[in-house]
Design brief:
This protein is an alpha/beta fold. The chain is about 45% helix and about 10% strand. α1 packs across α11. The relative contact order is 0.21.
Length: about 280
């Protein structure tokens, strides 16, 4: 089956977490191909990226709105690879990538959203969060850094925060890269075995693997509580990199097409001008 067999709309609807509807992550196959074939998908990704490029340039020139793409996943799901594969070749002046580590210094002395708001994309920009404010209802919850009475309130904070961004002109799109436990084991082993990848491995990864069921529960709750019409979550199969890359690219393209960015009007007298 060709990649063309899955339309934009049906793909978006099949991966989207719909507000008010139950979610069972085990019903989403991390190894799904979405009816695509590998080589055809690679070809289509080139076409999708070319269309994203046109819309990104218009968004940058228009300088009226922005788009925030949030990527969340378990370790080794390929957040870096997703960014590299779908954004390579786009105008770097219009792209900002932010990653959030354990807060320290002034960050730790403010509320958990303080540092996040400062990294949201300016008008004309596409911003990507490689991990995000969702760490504060995921790892913080699973590892018990704060009590339930604290983290359980954060779903409401986050929804309000994302509604604020939307009201002020930022389109918010969130992708959960759905990796299987077995595929994560294989990828972590590859990091251990390959000296060029070993820097990515940390012993804490093994401790996190022991908490896999708790993380899955935390992710499910986060997706259910914070997927809204204005800031939707998508569950993207991540066991096959080529599926993951094309799916995220199509989701990004879909939202850019909905934004319909336009080039600013020509300056008076420019049309037909001969530069000497």
């Amino acid at each position: 089956m060709s990649t063309k067999a899955t339309s934009h709309v049906s793909l978006i609807e099949s991966l989207r977490v719909h507000p008010g509807k139950p979610l069972t992550l085990s019903h989403h196959d991390p190894a799904a191909t979405l009816g695509w074939e590998k080589e055809a998908a690679k070809v289509e990704l080139v076409d999708v990226k070319a269309r994203i490029d046109v819309l990104q340039r218009r968004l940058y020139a228009e300088e009226q709105r922005s788009l925030l793409l949030v990527l969340q996943a378990m370790d080794a799901a390929g957040k870096d690879g997703t960014i590299r594969n779908i954004l390579a070749g786009l105008n770097p002046a219009g792209i900002e990538v932010s990653s959030f580590r354990v807060p320290g210094g002034p960050e730790a002395q403010h509320d958990y959203l303080w540092r996040v708001h400062a990294e949201t994309p300016a008008k004309g920009m596409i911003g990507i969060f490689n991990r995000s404010h969702y760490e504060d209802v995921l790892v913080v919850r699973v590892k018990g850094f704060v009590p339930k009475s604290v983290w359980s309130k954060r779903y409401g904070h986050i929804k309000a925060f994302e509604e604020l961004l939307t009201d002020e002109g930022t389109t918010v799109v969130k992708c959960y890269l759905n990796l299987s436990e077995d595929e994560q084991r294989k990828r972590l082993q590859e990091r251990v075995d390959d000296p060029e990848k070993r820097w990515k491995f940390r012993m804490g990864d093994l401790e996190d693997r022991k908490l896999w069921p708790e993380y899955q529960k935390a992710y499910k709750d986060a997706l259910v509580h914070t997927s809204t019409d204005h800031a939707p979550w998508y569950v993207v199969p991540a066991d096959r990199n080529w599926v993951r890359n094309l799916a995220v690219a199509k989701i990004l393209l879909h939202h850019l097409e909905e934004m319909k960015p336009k080039l600013p009007p020509d300056e008076e007298g420019v049309e037909g001008l001969i530069v000497t």
